[in-house]
Amino acid sequence: MDKNILQTFSLSRNFGELKAVDNLDLSVPEGSIYGFLGPNGAGKTTTIRMLLGLVHPSNGQVTWFGQPLVNDPIGLLKRVGSLIEMPSYYPHLTGFENLEVIRRLSGGKKNDIARVLHLVGLEQDANRVVRQYSLGMCQRLGLAIALLNQPEVLVLDEPINSLDPAGIHEMRELFQHLQEEGVTLFISSHLLSEIDQVATMIGIIRKGKLIFQGTPSELRAQYPRRLSIGTDRPEDVSIWLKGQGYPILQMNNHHIDIPIRSEDESAKMNKKLSIAGFPIFETRYESISLEGIFLQVTSRENQSGE
């Protein structure tokens, strides 16, 4: 996944005095699932609309497949499928019939419908009228429409929003299946725990600015895991830990949390505490979730006044 299928260079969009997107440099590797994260109002949807040529940038450039979007928007975007909002369907028609309408309008092949129904797992429900579909099934039908022209990339804006846990699980499996089929996915979301489970690359945007871009492991490496130490002498242990150079992340009742880089370092700390003679009744090594890191990142940005 060394080749970037999508890139932006200093991409910006102003709405009057508001900088909705501010000098964004995205790099989306071919074959990746790129999770584009940010709180509501961060600039995610504006960015996506610029990627798809629906909004013109105030400054900067979008390139698809190594070519500037402005040079050949129709030709380049033919290779890109998208699902920005819940599409409108004909509720009295079946899923198959809705796809057939789109296929005829787009000039697709007849066997494309069977292909996309199989991809999104709607084969058994293809002949049900859409008004009987669940929200998750409607999302799958939207993805099927986006896949009709065999795109190399799917751009999805909040595709798992409003789904129940079962629907979210199904969509996550579908994303991984599509990646295995060779489709690159660019997924915007604020449901961080779900992106954590599928993303191979992550970009975090806040107030229009990209504040992180890299792999999930690279993100976690910047934010240490924690060791929770249970002791009957929390004040004494806290003073000793500070003397050893460990900042106290949290101290509640008889538990002290400190940052730790690895399980090996955690084991060494257990030994040091024992040698120092402290009564320790529990140590718990905890890895931090992507959601926890996201909150730390955005909290840090808030503190810096960004």
TrEMBL record:
Residues that span the membrane, as ranges: none
GO MF term (any one): ATP binding
Annotated ranges, domain ABC transporter: 6-232
One Pfam family linked to the record: ABC_tran
SUPFAM superfamilies membership: P-loop containing nucleoside triphosphate hydrolases
Record keywords, A-Z: ATP-binding, Nucleotide-binding, Transport
Keyword rRNA processing: no
Source superkingdom: Bacteria
Family the UniProt entry places it in: Belongs to the ABC transporter superfamily.
Annotated protein name in UniProt: ABC-2 type transport system ATP-binding protein
Originating organism: Pelolinea submarina
